[in-house]
UniProtKB/TrEMBL annotation:
Annotated ranges, domain HTH rpiR-type: 3-79
High-level lineage: Bacteria, Bacillati, Bacillota, Bacilli, Lactobacillales
CDD domains for this protein: SIS_RpiR (cd05013)
Protein name (Swiss-Prot/TrEMBL): MurR/RpiR family transcriptional regulator
Keywords on record: DNA-binding, Transcription, Transcription regulation
Length: 286
């Protein structure tokens, strides 16, 4: 199933030119009007040529304006609900502020869920299952997601690795082989450090799975499989922090699918981990 248009636009937004961003903003803010207007009327409203709007629809992957408009009409109900409780107001109570944060997180998960497809999930899990080693890479805020993934996949039957230090991550990536897999996480997909890591992993022959919020980012173009997380930015909290929740859920999904596909060996690993942790708890005296 095709991704909702507003999610396509958001995942590609940072790569648009200023004129394309103006068109994108207009579509996101006026989906119903766009779906019921002619290309000439829209172009006149935006002060651009018909051909500019036409080319924008081609950039989104449509054959032209008619194809774009038909898809938009089908998705109009979804698009009308793009803006929900995102902005915290000065007079909001503490409870309302918290509820709006929860609402934003829920929307982040819902939007990201819509972008998932079975082909990518199957491909990623097959790569991971066939890997001799699995390494997680992330810098800055994305390192938190990579660490969480490492902690989780330690319970899987696949040997895993992760370092919090960028230079060590870069060295680890360079030492991977064709039998290994790298999962590289970056919200923007434009971090030079993360791109260096992904390039090193690709050069070593390893398969690369990318988790990012930008579908057309340099990092996404390096991935054998790419997962897109969608998030909304609200005041006092960056979009990158919101995307972390979606990225964690993507990693959780890969972990659960992997464990179900390898139930017997996965159960052995889980049992070993539980036994050693339980031993620590039983020996605790304070």
């Amino acid at each position: 199933m095709a991704s909702p248009i507003h999610l396509q636009i958001k995942s590609m937004y940072t790569d648009f030119s200023p004129k394309e961003q103006a068109i994108a903003d207009y579509i996101l803010e006026n989906p119903s009007k766009v779906s019921h207007s002619s290309i000439s009327d829209l172009a006149a409203e935006l002060g651009i040529a018909d051909s500019t709007f036409f080319q924008f629809t081609k950039t989104l992957g449509f054959s032209g304006f008619k194809d774009f408009k038909l898809a938009l009409l089908k998705q109009e109900n979804d698009l009308s609900a793009v803006t929900i409780h995102e902005n915290i107001q000065k007079n909001d109570s503490e409870l309302v502020m918290a509820q709006k944060v929860f609402d934003s997180n829920i929307k982040t998960l819902t939007d990201t869920k819509k972008l998932l497809n079975e082909e990518d999930l199957n491909a990623a899990v097959k790569i991971i299952s066939a890997s001799r080693r699995l390494y997680f890479f992330g810098v800055g805020g994305s390192e938190i997601v990579a660490t969480d993934a490492y902690h989780k996949f330690l319970r899987s039957p696949i040997p895993v690795g992760h370092s919090t230090d960028y230079h060590i991550q870069l060295m680890e990536a360079s030492l991977l082989t064709e039998a290994d897999c790298a999962i590289v996480i970056s919200h923007s997909g434009k971090s030079k450090e993360t791109i260096h890591i992904a390039n090193a992993a690709k050069k070593s022959g390893a398969k690369v799975i990318v988790v990012t919020s930008q579908a057309n980012s340099p990092l996404a173009k390096l991935g054998d499989v790419v997962f897109i997380s969608i998030s909304e930015e609200i005041e006092f909290r960056s979009e990158a922090l919101a995307s972390r929740i979606a990225q964690l859920s993507i990693i959780d999904s890969l972990y659960v699918i992997l464990m179900f596909h390898n139930r017997e060996s996965a159960q052995e690993t889980i049992t070993k981990v539980r036994e050693v942790i339980l031993g620590l708890k039983e020996n605790k005296t304070d």
